[in-house]
Amino acid sequence: MKEFFPGIPMVLYEGSYSTNPFAFHFYEPERIVAGKPMREYLQFVLPLHKLLAFVGAQIAAKQPAQKEALHACMELMHKLGLTYFSLSDASLTRVGGSLRENNGILDEMLQLLFILQSGYHALPMVFTADLTSDPRYVRGAATSPSADVFALAAAQTKKAVECAARIGARYFCLDIANDLAKQNTRDTMCVNQTLENRTLAAMLSLLENHAKAIGFNGRLALQTQQIAGAARYTTLRNAPGDRLTMQKMTLSMLDLLHSPENTHGGIALEVSQKKAHTPEDLCVALILYMDRCALGLLLANRLRLDGRLEQFTRERYCSYEYGTGKSILDGTTNFDALELYVMQKNDIPAPICRDDYLESVLFSLIHRGN
After folding, report:
1. Which of 36, 139, 218, 356 is the most exposed place for a label (fewest CB within 10 A)?
2. Where in the chain is the domain with CATH 3.20.20.150?
3. Which pTM value belongs to this model?
4. Whether CATH 3.30.380.10 fits 12-304
């Protein structure tokens, strides 16, 4: 296969003392952390739909062919040792184009994607129906005031979930950010909220029925919070920001250690492309992000083994393990009983926070020698 980025070598783990910018300093995929390889916690996903335009512009002086850009992204993925990628229908087609034209483009691009997946041993984590980028969706797609626009969005979603099934994506995501933003706005003038709730529910139902009919084995997902009528949809986990402090990154990874099943959609490699002037810059930024996540995971495991934060958490909520607290959780109490309890107790002190103590524990453990 043609090599698009000869200046980027295969990126391997070399340890924290390495001065090689194209090496991992903390991300060691096979290292065992809390009983599992690091790679199982940190299922990094390269968002090809966000990189295609940037990478394409680097490999062609004129408007790049999407096929070459897709190939180049897969090469970058391979050199970073990544397995998973995410993709959207709009990143492969022409925004604002006709449905027939875009469906043809998707069929052609998927044929290439099959070849690249096999050649680079890449797996699709998420395939998204982008119902936000087209200007016709400015007033919503699933909640558009136009039935014609709703029909367009439905037809686009139909094709997108079929693509997700063909490539074997784990998740099919419906991006309806415009619809949700419209629901949260204060501007409700001339809006039939009841009707829009019905059309949104209709879109979700149509998707569920078609996904079942075509045998899509993945999970249906939304990129945002759960909405009414979407209880059967997974909410994709937000990736830790690339500008998080190490302390916040560590706490984010501690949450991951405690709830590894909540890694819906993997960890998207979210890095700013504005500061990346070359593919090499972008690669270094991706390495840095992966290393920060890995270091955060190692530090989080240190916190777990130390046990002081977990012990403090248990003690903080211990009043729910017996007596009145237990009856609250069991549902065996009522307002009258709680009122009587407070009257008899007379003095109810505020819980002790001890924030400074917790900060000192976290600080000392994070900055202890690695």
Report:
1. 356
2. 12-304
3. 0.85
4. no
